Amino acid sequence: xxxxxxxxxxxxxxxxxxxxxxxxxxxxxxxxxxxxxxxxxxxxxxxxxxxxxxxxxxxxxxxxxxxxxxxxxxxxxxxxxxxxxxxxxxxxxxxxxxxxxxxxxxxxxxxxxxxxxxxxxxxxxxxxxxxxxxxxxxxxxxx
Length: 143
Fold this sequence. Notes:
Blueprint: H1 3-21, H2 25-39, E1 43-45, H3 48-52, E2 60-65, E3 75-80, E4 83-88, H4 96-102, E5 107-112, E6 116-121, H5 128-137
Antiparallel strand pairs: 1-2, 2-6, 3-4, 3-5, 5-6
Keywords: Membrane, Transmembrane, Transmembrane helix
Transmembrane segments: 6-22
């Protein structure tokens, strides 16, 4: 058997192995989305508790660091079929309703904590929705 046939077979095997390792379709999109999120100051986290809560199943947590806020400015909500369900805080919490009204529909939960805000969402197909998320969270920067 000629040497070039052996080289061609080995090259084909190596190339097919590389194609299996390369991200495809949705994986590639999520990689780009998460990279853009990092450039906008968001940390992407995989939290186990998001898988234990029905409303957050399939969600990924995006955390944005903020200035320390007062205890009365903290809140936690989950999106239900009837709207937002309050786990802590209320509609009277400063800037809360303004943020909730502007959040993209993919957001299933939000926790404003002492030094950050964590958003649980189903990552969108359109990267432009990330800009909508970042814009919606801006009122919390001043609290």
